[in-house]
Design a protein that fits this description.
It is built from 7 helices and 10 strands. The chain has about 230 residues and is an alpha/beta fold. Helix 3 packs across helix 4, helix 4 packs across helix 5 and helix 5 packs parallel to helix 6. It binds adenosine-5'-diphosphate. The site of adenosine-5'-diphosphate has 12 residues, from strand 2 and helix 1.
Length: about 230
């Protein structure tokens, strides 16, 4: 599903250059749950940005679901994001002027999915996260756990092959955190989705991700078992 070879990302040039990812190599099979661990500044966000098609490598190759991301132009990268990836962030990133339904619908609108199909898909995603009854509410009327469940619905609505979750439980109480993790794991179990979970929480990684990638100073320390 993911093959990274000599993956390198540098920011800036000359004396201001920073090597955020330095010759990183790993492979991930479809349906794997991977924890991505490392201190702040170790390169986790940079790696997630490359995996999510939000940025492109400076050198090396990154092949995801048969697509070589470094060779895609802007429009093809946008297509890749809409068709292949679902994102869940620590801070939810919902649009507060839109309803829960409209937030979840957004990736489908951007992908040009017809209205009737959008409705069916949004309803299925909201049912999966148990928010059907809140579909016309505004995110500001929801609890933190419900907001993150809305974000999970938005991430899974287009049935992505890759789910990227960046500290998805970082702002939640322990009951809501468990709920959100179980919903993500249900996606993996039911659809064979591949999950990458950035976390500082070793216990969370131990519980949910059988394999972890550990990063330090832009390098991958290990790609072994948790
Ligand atoms: P993490 O997510 O593990 O905290 P990052 O991937 O954000 O780490 O950062 C890795 C390194 O790259 C850090 O030294 C950071 O300062 C640097 N970095 C990240 N983004 C940029 C950028 N846009 N410009 C310059 N340096 C950056």
């Amino acid at each position: 599903m993911i093959v990274a070879k000599q993956l390198t990302k540098k920011y800036g040039t000359g004396t201001a250059a920073v090597t955020a990812l330095d010759d990183v190599n790993f492979t991930v099979e479809a349906g794997e749950c991977i924890g991505l661990l490392g201190r702040s500044g170790s390169g986790k966000s940079t790696l997630m940005n490359l995996l999510g098609g939000l940025d492109q490598p400076s050198a090396g190759s990154l092949n995801i679901a048969g697509q070589e991301l470094g060779s895609l132009n802007r429009a093809s990268l946008a297509d890749y994001r809409l068709s292949t990836v679902g994102f869940v962030f620590q801070a939810f990133h919902l649009i507060h002027s839109k309803t829960v339904f409209e937030n979840v619908e957004l990736p489908l609108v951007l992908a040009g999915v017809p209205k009737a199909e959008r409705k069916a898909k949004v309803n299925a995603a909201l049912e999966a996260v148990r928010l059907t009854a809140r579909d016309h509410h505004n995110p500001s009327q929801l609890s933190g756990g419900e907001r993150q469940r809305t974000a999970v619905a938005r991430a899974i609505v287009n049935q992505p092959r890759l789910l990227l979750a960046d500290e998805p439980t970082g702002n939640l109480d322990s009951a809501s955190a468990k709920d959100v993790m179980e919903l993500l794991m249900e996606q993996v179990r039911a659809n064979g989705t591949t999950l990458l979970l950035v976390t500082h929480d070793e216990a969370l990684a131990k519980q949910y991700t059988p394999r972890v990638l550990r990063m330090a100073d832009g390098k991958l320390l290990s790609a072994g078992v948790c």
